[in-house]
Amino acid sequence: MEGLAIKILGAVITTIVAFAVGMTYGGITRKLTARVQNRVGPTIFQNFIDLLKLQSKKTNIYHGVMGHFAPMWIITAAITVLMFIPVLHPGTAWYNSWFPNLSFHGDLIFLLYMMVFGSLGMALGAGQTGNPNSAIGVTRGLSQMVGFEIPFVLALVALMVQYQTTSIQDIMTVQRESGVWMMFSNPFSFLAALFASLGMFRYSPFDIVGAPAELASGPVSEFGGKYLGTMMSGGSIFAFIKLTLYVDLFLGGAYSIPELLIKTFALYMIPVFYGWVNPRYRTEQAIRYFWGWPTALGVIGLLIAIF
Amino acid sequence: MNTLALILLILFSGAIVAFLSEKVSKFLPSLIAFISITAAGILFYTSPADVFNFKLSMAGLNFTLKIDEFSRLFVHMIIGLSWLASMYAVGYMQNKERQGTFFFNMLLSIGGMLGIVAARDLVSFFVFWEIMTWSSFLIVVWTGADFRRTGIWYMVFSAMGAYAMLMAIMMIYSDIHTFNIDEIIAAIAEQRLPHLVEASVLLLFGFSVKAALMPLHVWAPNAYTQAPAAYTAIFSGVLSKMGIFGMALVLLSMLKFANPADFSLVYINGFIGQILAWLGAITAAIATLYALIQTDAKKLLAYSSVAQLGYITIGIAIGTPLSVMASLFLAVLHALFKGTLFLAMGAVERQAGTTDMTKISGLIRRMPWTFFVTLVSIISLAGVPPLAGFVGKWMLYEALITNGNVFMVVVVFFSSTAAFLYSYRILFGIFLGQEEDDTAHVKEAPLSMILPMVVMALLLIALGTYPGLLFDPIAQGMTVLGFENVTWQMTVLSNVWGNTVNLMYISTTIGVAFVAALLFLTLKGRKGSRNVGTKDISTSGEIPLEHENLTYQLDFFKPFERAASPLYRRKMTKIYDDLSNGLDALFDFTRKIYTGNGQTYALYVVIFLVALLIYVQNTL
Amino acid sequence: METKKDSQTIAEYIKNWSRKHSLFVMAYGTGCGAIEIPATMTSRYDAERLGIRGAATPRQADVLLITGYLATKTLKRVIRVYEQMQDPKYVIAFGSCTINGGMYYDSYNTINVLEKYIPVDVYINGCMPRPEAVIAGFKQLQDKIARGDADNGTRYKENLDWYRANQQQVIKNWRMPDYNW
Question: Per-10-residue mean pLDDT for chain B, 620 residues long?
């Protein structure tokens, strides 16, 4: 019983850490973007303030049951995926047990599917609001997803086949024992996955899904107050999840929180930097982009993994 | 009397009674159909397992029917889905004309399917196969709409499949002089069947037609769309699985017993399996691409059925224990969720008058139960945890990855990611979006139609956490196919590399997180929440009028279509059309020679004689 | 006189603090004033450092910024947008036109005093007010929010009849949906 209590406490702590890190990274991005544009920019905790404000809105719009469920689905998916991702190398330091590790009860295929759970829930909620802009945004988002999932899957399959495992933890162990990160031992797969991550984070040039001026921010255009706030939190946790997943798979995982933060931040800056210097792609251009070089790199990586 | 024969007798005589009873009352045929299927089901489930044996010698042929563990799995599907569909049909077919014909054919095809899975000799197999094909053909053309596209395609392809099967059966008979399947397998094991490869390929061709595999799939989308929804559920849910049943029979029972020492046969076995699997993967990808550009919900689901059958074929064709299990699991699931979806679309069609997604939208508040079952089955179809579809998808992927079919995994993954697009399309197109005036009168379907769908939806939810409920009969069935010691657990999935997924943890985590979020979002600021309709949206300050249509439905995935345009360029139907036009031209040309006119023929004779004379003179 | 700040509970104080530092602006770009908004938001004046950023839809917005004269046709849209915003919400009226009609004071199809149609929190004077003035206006709004006096939505709800009567006076073909709380 005591073990269970610690696990639950650990789950709560993991969620809070993921949430805080994700939100802060968002804030840092805003600050850095501002600095790049020669502005002062908001504080790096601006996202927390925004969230607090959204949650303290006095009235909210109820758009029907699916609209009500949409933010829940995002946050549910985010927390569930978080519980199945090893945040740190298990068993290497005493405080690692604070991050409960259920990952041996779920593997990469499960994660691939679980990560779309939130997007689909969001899509349903956006659909029920009846706003045509939301539906257009959703179709763009889903189409773009078909684009970047291909190089991502190619990269993951290469890892899975090469190391004869579908578990993230085993892949981390492989890297710990060999001392070589996957980004060096499987460079082509890493590059393919990296390109896929550009689409996953939806920064420019792949931000046509929620184009503010064109689609009135797309899928979220009818959500405000607590709904938008919950979506923001879920999105932040998801950002942390994606970064941690990449660190676990390609950057050798992390042994302590500072190491994790350094690695995730370095990874996070790639889509952000890429976004600063790129204009926006149309949906079909984005899909073609992902089906071009990233897929080719993924295929090369996969061929190397087989032979 | 023999129980199995009795069940078939009930169904076939029920068919005739249903046909005749239409004269008495329009309501009667549906009731008779429901009662006969119920009776057959009760008979099947109350009898002990060992009584389903039936032998009949007639005209020098031995007809053998026997339900073993593998057939039993399919019988569960046939009886279960048919029973629910016939319950649904009572409400669905209300006030429709020519119900007698419909239920006659429906019962006939159900009996035919039971006969197929029970048949242990190729003659009865073929007879029941043809009963099933023709009765389903008559239902496909029952509405009489668009006969050229649906009826003729279906008839031509079914006939092609049937002839291929007939040839294969004759080949086998000429080799070993028996139709009995057990004897044939024994003969294969002793290598007394020289035409094994040819016969297998022909049989697989016949089964591929029913399973709507890639080049032979063109009949399926139209046929599934044209049949009335109550039957399409059966058609797509179990009738198409007869092709899978046949494939399993050929690939796993027959070809497997080929002597391992005989290199060429082993090679051929793996080769045929790989080709079939790749055909399945390509079918899945192409059909998915076509599904997402459809505007008619039923047609979309029809294409999606073709794609799902592709997955199922892959599993059978790869032939490892995990892949076969995945495939059979997906087969049962497909019966459940596609059955539910077609029934739900039938309910929409009955209540709203059409399933064209450009004409209706925003039915969620009008048909909440139908929406619920559609949502559950769509989530299962898409394979998103924690519902049952994920289990099947997971096993299929793991089977392919552990087996080294890595590129096939990517193709399959592409098609199931693209499947999210049409999954969303169907939910959005019919249930979400703007609530228009045209659909304001729509009401929820009657209870007799809702109940079967809800039952299947609940099964899908339960199987998502406890797939072991279904693994049990599947594992027993696989024992018959020769997979000894298939291991399974109630809530844990595992692959050959020892990686596991614990569904209990997943469901619990999702449940806890969801309930917490639900409580938080619902209770927080409850007083300040206000309900709005779908017209109260931010439209740059413009106020849309009640009759103004803000629905976004046409060209829904145009950007994707543009991106994937090379994949849309070639159409199989066009190739077949070109082929038939070419043949047409050939026959036209032939008719220029064989005009049917006596004088022309006389002229030919004269010309021939003249030519002969000249030839003879020259040579002399 | 006791100021409102002292009477606030801690929770209210924190909420108001967050509201003050996070203002999502629905910039309703009517009239010529819209041209000052890009200058305010971009590098030179950078309103984002005060937590002010644009919102694309009224559902997410806190501040309705009306940047100039309002034709009666536009007023209808402004009212619609305002009513779609969620409490607490604030209105900043920008430029002379919103105060007394400005140079359009005698136009047949613009309104002169915005206050008569929707409640306004802060007026920014000028024709045009420069970005410094705009930021000063936002600063004033922030102070008001921190004090807890900015209850724009409540004022509108309480005096709905008066506002509706005024609105219907200028909008001839009245076809607005009911404001259902």
Answer: 82 88 84 89 81 72 82 89 90 82 89 89 89 88 77 86 90 85 82 78 88 84 86 89 87 68 56 85 89 88 90 87 88 91 90 85 87 91 87 88 86 89 88 80 86 91 88 85 78 79 83 87 78 78 77 84 83 80 86 80 89 84
Q: Is B589 exposed, middle or buried (0-12, 13-18, 19+ CB in 10 A)?
A: exposed
Query: Per the CB < 8 Å rule, is A39 touching C57?
Result: no
Q: Are residues A302 and B398, on separate chains, in Cβ contact within 8 Å?
A: no
Residues in C closer than 8 angstroms to A37, CB to CB, are 42-43
Mutate to test the interface with B, among A103, A124, A167, A171 (most CBs of B within 10 A): A124
Which of A32, A44, A51, A57 to probe by mutation at the C interface, max C CB count within 10 Å?
A57
Give burial (CB, 10 Å; 0-12/13-18/19+) of B352. Answer: buried
The values of phi and psi at residue C113, to 5°, are -115, 115
The answer to whether B95 contacts chain C (CB < 8 Å) is no
Nearest CB among B530, B535, B538 relative to C58 is that of: B538
Contact (CB, 8 A) for A272 and A203: yes
Chain B nearest C-alpha distance from A173 (Å)? 14
Q: How many residues does chain A have?
A: 307
The CATH number, out of the four listed (3.90.550.10, 3.40.50.12280, 3.40.20.10, 3.40.50.300), of the domain defined by the range C4-170: 3.40.50.12280
- CB B122, CB B106: distance < 8 Å: no
DSSP state letters, B533-584: -TT-S-STT----TT------TTTTHHHHHHTHHHHS--HHHHHHHHHHHHH
In single-letter form, the type of residue at position A283 comes to T
Q: Which of B428, B512, B567 to mutate to test the interface with A (most CBs of A within 10 A)?
A: B428
Q: How far apart are CA B504 and CA B514, in angstroms?
A: 15
Q: What tens digit of pLDDT does each residue of A248-267 get? A: 888 888 888 888 899 999 99
**Short-list A155, A145, A72, A177, CA closest to A108:** A155
Q: Do A107 and B427 touch (CB under 8 A)?
A: no
Instruction: Determine contact: B551 vs chain A, CB below 8 A.
Output: yes
Taking the C-alpha atoms of residue A16 and residue A276, their distance in angstroms, rounded to an integer, is: 29
Parse chain A into domains and list their residue ranges. 2-306
Complex prediction ipTM: 0.91
Helices (H), B353-405: 368-382, 388-403
Residue B223 and residue B154 in contact, taking contact as beta carbons nearer than 8 Å: yes
Cβ(B374)–Cβ(B427) below 8 Å: yes
CB B457 within 8 A of CB B373: yes
- Neighbouring C-beta atoms of residue A94, cutoff 10 Å: 7
d(CA B201, CA A109): 34
A-facing residues of B in 473-532 (CB < 8 A) are: 495, 497, 499-502, 505-506, 509-510, 513-514, 517-518, 520-522, 524-525, 528-532
pLDDT of residue C1: 43
Please judge whether B532 and A63 are an interchain contact, meaning their C-beta atoms are less than 8 angstroms apart: yes
Cβ atoms of residues B344 and B417 within 8 Å: no
Q: Using CB atoms, which chains have 3+ pairs under 8 A with C? A: A, B
**Average pLDDT across chain A, whole number:** 85
Strand partners, B121: B180
DSSP alpha helix (H) spans, B177-320: 181-189, 196-210, 219-226, 229-234, 241-248, 263-291, 297-318
Contact in structure between A108 and A167 (CB atoms under 8 Å): yes
* Domain ranges, ordered by start, for chain C: 4-170
DSSP H/E element including B500:
strand B500-502
Q: List the single residue in A40, A60, A216 with the smallest CB-CB distance to C86.
A: A60
